[in-house]
Amino acid sequence: MSLAVVTGAGHGLGQETARLLAARGHSIVAVDIDGDSAIQVAKDVGGRGFACDVADRDAVRALAARVGPIDILVNNAGIWRFGPLLELSHADVMDVVNVNLLGTLWCVQAFVPGMAGRGGSVINLSSGAARMHSAGTGIYPTTKNAIEALTIQLAVELGPQGVRVNAVAPGSILTEATARILSDSDRAERERTIPRGRLGQPSDVAEAVAYLASDAADYVTGQILYVDGGLTSGRVTSR
User: Fold this and answer.
1) Which residue spans within the chain are E strands per DSSP?
2) Distance between CA 142 and CA 129 in Å, rounded?
3) Would the pTM of this model clear 0.70, i.e. be above it?
4) Which domains does the chain have, with CATH numbers?
5) 140 included as an active-site residue
6) For the segment 18-57, what is each residue's pLDDT rounded down to a tens digit?
7) Most exposed of 26, 165, 174, 204 (fewest Cβ within 10 Å)?
């Protein structure tokens, strides 16, 4: 049975991904800064749960030493601090960069050496925001662009060691967080512009991650898979 580490597994996309990977036969290590949520998700799927801030390089290394060799790493943990670029505080910029970009790198540095020679799969989480830039979204899109570049470079560097590296880029997904802030009219307006005609579900993203983690994707590396209902290809202007 392969062992999968999922960061940001306590809520939303990470939680759904952990549940789906467990259903597909993988043993799960659920990681989240909210340790109670990570432990609960792990309990639900028969895995192990840990509290860890991925922005803390030493904490990530200690976690990797505790967990041991793994087969799948899903770098899902991420945050945003929205606002105009000219008004972002130093703290907001560094928080987003440290979690989204550096947190991904620290997890790769800590967990991937145990994959070398055995093979493995790393799936990073990008975002549709890497392609569709909007005013007021802060440094978040920049970190997601950087994650895509990091994914491709890692795929080149780690390929000879048998490690595949890809990214999944969700579009507008109806998670617990987005459901709280979207009114019915906001949701209808968003759905009107998406070619597929609906908001995505966490399961849409989890299925993409599960594919990239599977043997079916053995010849797939260095790729960015957009799961966005076609939104980054173009907005629908009328229906």
Assistant:
1) 3-7, 27-32, 48-51, 72-75, 120-125, 163-170, 224-227
2) 9
3) yes
4) 3-173+201-233 (3.40.50.720)
5) yes
6) 999 999 999 999 999 999 999 999 999 999 999 999 999 9
7) 174
